Amino acid sequence: MRIEVGYGLEGTMADSMAGRIIQYVMTPKFKNGDYDGGITDGARAVIDILEGGEVREIADDKRGAAEKSLFLDIEAPEMAITERILFGAFIFGIIRLFTIIGVLTPGVGWFLYLFLIPFWAMFSIIVVGTKNALICLATYMTVFPLAKFFLGNSRWYEKIKNDLRTKGKTSIGGFVFSSGSSGGSWSSGSSRSSGFSGGGGSSGGGGASGSW
To answer: What digits encode the pLDDT tens for the residues 124-133?
Structure first.
């Protein structure tokens, strides 16, 4: 399903509003097979907004129940699936890089393990929501120590520790790590648009899509 917003209405019917109508007003009805009710309620919600009102209270209630954290009053921001994918690729690409460095590096790796915990927790909420963020965090906190345990028994890992102990530095994937009094340090060596045209005119101010 999709709500297509015409030119000139972007300021009144923002993409986020169209997304809320689809997700919290129409989708529940569609899931229950009440397509007439979903379309009717969706049309009423659109009219309410165009007349200066807001999406019905049911939208806010359902969003709060679905997205609020069990411990904190945190909600995931409204983003289209393409925005979540792009933002997630950027964020997780960075923290995964530092996670891999932490796993492969003796000493300072445990500092990175603790340092990255809030990043895995908070950024995951933005991308995948509260419940899935908890799964991501639990996976990270479990897999990281296990990976370091298994690598710790390998010859390659022993060589890295020996280089740090004897030479004071080592190289891992282009990154140079050096030991010191603080435990270690490292340095590196190295819009969306939419539109629709039909016989009666064109629209391309924005909108939102959804499924059920």
So the answer is: 887 887 888 8
**Which of 15, 64, 7, 72 lies closest to 205, judged by CA?**
7
Amino acid identity, residue 179? S
Q: Where are any strands of DSSP class E within the chain?
A: 2-5, 169-172, 175-178, 185-188, 196-198, 201-203, 206-209
Decide: 74 and 115 in contact? Cβ < 8 Å: no
pLDDT category at 159 given cuts 50, 70, 90 is: confident
- Residues ≥6 apart with Cβ < 8 Å to 169: 163, 176, 177, 178, 179
- Please give the sequence-ordered ranges of beta strands (E in DSSP) within 43-174, or none if there are none: 169-172
pTM above 0.85, yes or no: no
Four-CA torsion 12, 17, 19, 20, nearest 10 degrees: -150
Q: Is 208 in contact with 2 (CB distance < 8 Å)?
A: yes
Residue with tokens 């411990």: 71
Among the listed residues 28, 34, 16, 156, the one whose alpha carbon sits nearest the alpha carbon of residue 76: 16
Question: Cβ atoms within 10 A of the Cβ of 151, count?
Answer: 16
For 44, 129, 147, 155, 185, the CA distances from 151, given in Å and listed in that order, are 60, 32, 6, 9, 20
